[in-house]
C-alpha cells in the first residue's frame, strides 16, 4: 500500500497528491509517469510524475477528475493509501543545453511541464513558459511555474484570467518575435499538442510532445498505447511518452483516445449511481 502524505485541492476538478514511494522517488526523472490503482480491483490510471522529492521519498501527482477512476481517486484524503503505485515508467525528457526553449502547458499539461522546465533551466537553457486553460478554475501552479521559467505567459481561452485566447497565439508571437528558439515542448490535451506542432512546423523548430494514449500495462506488452510516429508504430509507454510532434499521426491518436467512450460513460454512470445510493 502507498500512503498519501498530502492532498491539496487545486481547483474544482483538480487535485494534487503527494505519495510515499521512496523507490520510485529515488529514480524518477522529468518526463516519466507512474501507473496507480486506487483499490485492488481498480482500473490502472497512468499519471505523470509532476514532482519528486528524493530526500522525503515522495512523488507528487496532479489529477483532473474526468471519469470513474479519476473521480474515485479524487475522493481519497491525506492518510488514505493506494493499492498500487508503479514506476517510474517511460523515457525521461532528453535534457541538454538547447539554448532558447519554449515550454507550453495546456490545462493538466501544466503538471508535467513543471519538472521539465526545472531540469531544462538547470541545464542552462533560457526557458519561456506559456500556460493556459479553458477557464480560470482549471489553471494552477502559476507561482511554481514562475519559479522555474525566465518568463511566463498565462492565459485562458475564455479570458477569465490572464491573456484571452488559446496557447498557440502567444506561441506564434514568440516565434515571430525575431528571437531564435531552439526547441519547444508542448504538453496538454492531444488536440492542443497537435495545433502547437502545426504552429511550430513552418518555423522548423523541433517540437516535443508527450502522448497521452490509452495505456494498460505501461511496459510495452499489451499494445494499447500504440501510436504512429514518422510512419512507424511505437508504444508510447516504452518508446515515449515524448515524441517529435511534427511526426505524430494526430488523427489516429485522437480517434484511438475516443475508442472506449461509450464504456467509460457506462462505468461513470454506474459509479455515480452507487455513490448516490450509499
Ligand atoms: C503517460 C500519461 C500521463 C498522464 N498524466 C496525467 C496526469 O498527470 N494527470 C491527469 O489527470 N491525467 C493524466 N493522464 C490521463 C489519465 O490517465 C486519464 O485521464 C485517466 O486514465 C482517465 O480515467 P477515468 O476512468 O477517470 O476516465 P474515463 O472515463 O475512463 O476516460 C476519460 C478519458 O481519459 C482517457 N483515458 C481513459 N483511460 C485511460 C488510460 N488507461 N490511459 C490513458 N488515458 C485514458 C481517454 O481519453 C478517455 O476518453 C495521463 C495519461 C497518460 C497516458
Ligand atoms: S500500455 Fe501496454 S504496450 Fe503500452
Helices and strands, with pairings:
Layout: E1 2-11, E2 14-20, H1 22-27, E3 33-37, E4 45-48, E5 51-53, E6 58-64, H2 68-74, E7 81-82, E8 84-89, E9 100-106, H3 110-122, E10 126-133, H4 142-147, E11 151-156, E12 163-164, H5 168-176, E13 183-187, H6 190-200, E14 207-210, E15 226-229, E16 232-235, H7 236-239, E17 242-244, H8 250-257, H9 261-277
Parallel strand pairs: 9-10, 9-13, 10-11, 11-12, 13-14
Antiparallel strand pairs: 1-2, 1-7, 2-6, 3-4, 3-8, 5-6, 14-17, 15-16
Helix pairs in contact: 5-6
The structure holds flavin-adenine dinucleotide (FAD) and FE2/S2 (inorganic) cluster.
Describe the protein's architecture and organization.
The chain has 278 residues and is α/β, with parallel strands linked by helices. The chain has 3 domains: 2-89, Translation factors (Elongation Factor Tu (Ef-tu), domain 3), CATH 2.40.30; 93-210, Rossmann fold; 213-278, no CATH class. Helix content is 29%, strand content 31%. It has 9 helices and 17 strands. The protein has helices at 22-27, 68-74, 110-122, 142-147, 168-176, 190-200, 236-239, 250-257, 261-277, and strands spanning 2-11, 14-20, 33-37, 45-48, 51-53, 58-64, 81-82, 84-89, 100-106, 126-133, 151-156, 163-164, 183-187, 207-210, 226-229, 232-235, 242-244. The strands form 4 sheets. Strands 12-11-10-9-13-14-17 form a 7-stranded mixed beta sheet, sandwiched between helices. A 5-stranded antiparallel beta sheet has the order 5-6-2-1-7. Helix 5 runs parallel beside helix 6 (190-200). It is globular, with a radius of gyration of 18 Å. The structure holds flavin-adenine dinucleotide (FAD) and FE2/S2 (inorganic) cluster. Residues 33, 43, 45-48, 62-64, 66-70, 108, 111, 212-215, 241, 257, 261, 264, 268 line the site of flavin-adenine dinucleotide (FAD).
Amino acid at each position: 500500500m502507498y500512503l498519501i502524505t498530502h492532498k491539496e485541492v487545486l481547483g474544482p476538478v483538480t487535485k494534487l497528491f503527494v505519495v510515499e514511494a521512496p523507490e520510485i522517488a529515488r529514480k524518477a526523472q522529468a518526463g516519466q509517469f507512474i501507473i496507480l490503482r486506487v483499490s485492488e480491483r481498480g482500473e490502472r490510471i497512468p499519471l505523470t510524475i509532476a514532482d519528486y522529492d528524493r530526500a522525503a521519498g515522495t512523488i507528487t501527482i496532479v489529477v483532473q477528475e474526468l471519469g470513474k477512476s479519476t473521480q474515485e481517486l479524487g475522493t481519497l484524503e491525506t492518510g488514505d493509501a493506494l493499492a498500487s503505485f508503479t514506476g517510474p515508467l517511460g523515457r525521461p525528457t532528453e535534457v541538454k543545453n538547447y539554448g532558447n526553449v519554449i515550454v507550453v502547458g495546456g490545462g493538466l499539461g501544466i503538471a508535467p511541464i513543471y519538472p521539465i522546465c526545472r531540469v531544462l533551466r538547470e541545464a542552462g537553457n533560457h526557458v519561456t513558459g506559456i500556460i493556459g486553460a479553458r477557464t480560470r478554475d482549471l489553471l494552477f501552479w502559476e507561482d511554481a511555474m514562475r519559479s522555474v521559467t525566465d518568463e511566463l505567459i498565462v492565459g485562458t481561452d475564455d479570458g477569465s484570467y490572464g491573456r484571452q485566447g488559446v496557447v498557440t497565439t502567444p506561441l506564434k508571437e514568440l516565434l515571430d518575435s525575431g528571437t531564435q528558439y531552439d526547441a519547444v515542448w508542448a504538453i496538454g490535451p492531444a488536440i492542443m499538442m497537435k495545433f502547437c506542432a502545426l504552429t511550430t512546423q513552418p518555423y522548423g523548430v523541433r517540437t516535443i510532445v508527450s502522448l497521452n494514449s490509452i495505456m494498460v500495462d505501461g511496459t510495452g506488452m499489451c499494445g494499447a498505447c500504440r501510436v504512429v510516429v514518422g510512419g512507424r508504430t511505437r508504444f508510447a509507454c516504452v518508446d515515449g511518452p515524448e515524441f517529435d510532434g511534427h511526426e505524430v499521426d494526430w488523427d489516429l491518436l485522437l480517434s484511438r483516445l475516443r475508442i472506449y467512450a461509450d464504456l467509460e460513460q457506462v462505468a461513470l454512470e454506474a459509479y455515480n449511481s452507487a455513490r448516490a445510493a450509499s
